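Figure 3 (text version): C-alpha cells given as input.
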C-alpha cells in the first residue's frame, strides 16, 4: 500500500545475482508497459540511473555495493496522437505536455517530483499513491520562466500566480496538438492525454 507520512520507505539489500539492470526511467517504463504483471513481479530490477536514484541520493554509488530495495508507483498513460490513434504507455518519473518550454502552457505530471533535472513538485513521493501535477500558464513570459527555473533549485518557485500545483489520482488534458514527452523521450504529438496512478506498481533495487 502507498507510504504514509513519516513512515520509513525502503530497506538495505544486496543486489540479487539475477538482477536485470535498468539504465533509465524510460527503460523501466517501457519494461512495465510491455511485460505482464506476473513477469514483472518475478523479476529483480536493478535501477542504476534516472529519477529513482536521484531521489534516493544513490546516483553516484558504485554498482558493486549493496543497494536499497523500494516499492514505487508508476503512471499509466493513455494518449491520442495527432492522427487519432490511441496508445497506452507507462511513465516512471515525469511526463510533459507542451509545444515548447519558453512559450505557451506546460503541463507536467510527475511521480518523482523532478522534471528535466529540477524539483518542480516538492511534495511528490515515488510511493505516495498520488500524481503530482505542475502547470505553467501560457501567460508566463520568458524572463519569468527563467527565474522560475532557477528557483526550482531552492524549492522557492511556489506559490506563484502563473504556476499551479496539485495532487490527485487522475489527470486529463485535451487540446490542440502538443508534444508529449515521457521520461525525457519525445513520444508523439498529442491531442488528448489521460493519466492515473498505479500504486505499488513494482519493487526495484537502486
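Below: residues designed for each position.
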Amino acid at each position: 500500500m502507498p507510504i504514509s507520512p513519516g513512515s520509513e520507505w525502503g530497506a538495505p539489500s544486496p543486489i540479487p545475482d539475477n538482477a536485470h539492470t535498468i539504465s533509465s526511467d524510460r527503460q523501466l517504463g517501457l519494461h512495465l508497459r510491455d511485460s505482464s504483471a506476473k513477469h514483472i513481479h518475478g523479476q529483480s530490477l536493478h535501477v542504476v540511473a534516472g529519477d529513482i536514484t536521484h531521489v534516493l541520493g544513490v546516483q553516484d554509488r558504485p554498482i558493486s555495493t549493496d543497494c536499497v530495495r523500494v516499492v514505487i508507483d508508476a503512471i499509466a498513460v493513455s494518449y491520442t496522437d495527432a492522427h487519432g490513434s490511441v496508445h497506452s504507455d507507462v511513465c516512471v518519473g515525469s511526463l510533459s505536455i507542451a509545444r515548447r518550454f519558453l512559450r505557451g502552457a506546460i503541463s507536467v505530471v510527475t511521480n518523482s517530483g523532478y522534471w528535466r533535472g529540477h524539483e518542480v513538485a516538492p511534495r511528490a513521493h515515488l510511493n505516495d499513491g498520488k500524481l503530482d501535477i505542475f502547470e505553467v500558464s501560457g501567460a508566463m513570459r520568458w524572463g519569468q520562466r527563467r527565474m522560475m527555473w532557477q528557483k526550482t533549485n531552492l524549492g522557492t518557485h511556489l506559490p506563484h500566480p502563473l504556476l499551479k500545483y496539485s495532487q490527485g489520482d487522475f489527470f486529463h488534458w485535451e487540446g490542440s496538438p502538443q508534444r508529449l514527452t515521457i521520461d525525457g523521450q519525445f513520444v508523439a504529438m498529442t491531442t488528448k492525454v489521460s493519466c492515473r496512478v498505479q500504486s505499488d506498481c513494482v519493487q526495484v533495487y537502486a
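The chain has a mean pLDDT of 92.
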